[in-house]
Amino acid sequence: MMFADHVRDLANLAAADRRRTLAPRRGIDFASNDYLGLAGSDRLRASMIEALSRGVPVGSGGSRLLRGNAPEHEALEADAARFFGTEAALFFASGYVANTILFATLPQRGDLIVHDALIHASAHEGMRLTRATFVAAAHNDADAFEDAITAWRASGGTGRVWIAVESLYSMDGDQAPLAALSEIADRHDAVLLIDEAHATGVFGTDGRGLAEALDGRENVITLRTCGKALGCEGALLCGPAVMREFIVNRGRGFIFSTAPSPLMALAVGEALRIIADEPARRERLWASVATAERVLAPYGVTATGSQILPLVLGDAARTMQVADAIQAAGFDVRGIRPPTVPEGGSRLRISLTLNATVADIKALAKVMEEALR
Ligand SMILES: Cc1ncc(COP(=O)(O)O)c(C=O)c1O
To answer: What pLDDT does residue 73 have?
Structure first.
């Protein structure tokens, strides 16, 4: 039979409670990354209507290196570099693609990448393509990063070191020790790669993220994805001008791919202005975080000091049963299973956004009591 191996693999996934399906969007939003509720905001919608009515094209028509380089891309990159305080920025169609290109392109043969053990799948994708050596360091353990570098140098490694972390971890809601990692990077002449996917818009002055104090440094590159708190899609790599120029010349996924829609570049530019102009959105989100930490604590939900609150249940089947019960009551809380999280680490990932009110959070707490019983 054609695809017999694939059918067997799907059956194995089902047997391990890991087979996924695409579910419709239903219930109050405790699952999206639209933290500031910008995706459906009047202001983003108005900016798109205005752009369409003055003739901004829907498609870019080609690679950035050919006809696809629209003024909207360049304007966004200039705005983003100014906003984040870096020499340059480069826009991509998604964070996954940006990370893949970053890890595949910048570290060279003979270099070492030391990455956090819980780093996102997109970084792993890039590392599958890199010519550099790569090694995992224990999650959020700055000493483990330094030990890995020291061991590699002792074994004869002579190239550049790249330290790769997320500033706010997407499944745990905890923060990387950025100050300590930056000191390690300086000591070892290393470059620090910081994925700000879940911190952008939520943390920092005007939503600049957790790495704002490091932006602009010669040895720091940050990734700002645009599909989460910015409410759009795409991603911005921010850092030194040479990073931008190197990827334009050597980043295969950048060169051999159609540029993102100029409309989306405009939308992201508007989203950056919104996060700076409307701090009340962040204030409301932090009020939700405070409520959630209080009312969900009795059910074992971890208070993380962020908008991402995990409830680790361990077993995949039980996690999905609890998620189903909560969803049936009208709350869109999703269960997360391996390989997205480590083996035995299945969990509910409660994501707080402005799409749910404080009253919704309190109502969720009542439902969780029942669902966990
Ligand atoms: C930490 C992290 N990096 C990168 C990505 C990929 O970004 P995007 O969704 O824009 O492809 C995600 C989101 O899934 C993420 O959580």
So the answer is: 98
Q: Within 13 Å of residue 365, how many CA atoms lie on the same side as its CB?
A: 17
> φ, ψ for residue 78 (rounded to 5)?
-65, -45
Which residue's structure tokens are 């969990």? Answer: 347
| Distance between Cα 157 and ligand 1 center (Å) | 31
Q: Indicate whether residue 170 lines ligand 1 (CB < 6 A).
A: yes
Quick check: CB of 94 below 6 Å from ligand 1? yes
pLDDT at 351: 98
pTM: 0.97
d(CA 366, CA 359): 11
In eight-state DSSP terms, residue 146 is H
Q: How far is the CA of 96 from the centre of ligand 1 (A)?
A: 6
Q: 66-79 as b/e, with b when 16 or more CB fall inside 10 Å?
A: eebbbebbeebbeb
Residue whose tokens read 């990827």: 247
Residues 6+ apart with CB under 8 A from 94: 225, 227, 233, 234, 235
Among 139, 170, 202, the mutation site with the greatest number of ligand 1 atoms within 8 A of its Cβ is 170
Bridge pairing between strands 235-239 and 88-92: antiparallel
Q: Is 41 close to ligand 1, i.e. is its CB under 6 Å away?
A: no
Give the contacts of 26 (CB within 8 A, at least 6 positions apart).
327, 332
Q: What is the pLDDT of residue 1?
A: 86
Q: CA–CA separation, 354 vs 37, rounded Å? A: 5
Nearest CA to ligand 1 atom 4: 95
339 burial (CB, 10 Å; 0-12 / 13-18 / 19+) is exposed
- CA of residue 55 to ligand 1 center, whole Å: 31
Q: Please give the Cα distance from 258 to 69 (Å, whole number).
A: 10
| Residue 287 backbone dihedrals phi, psi, to 5 degrees | -65, -40
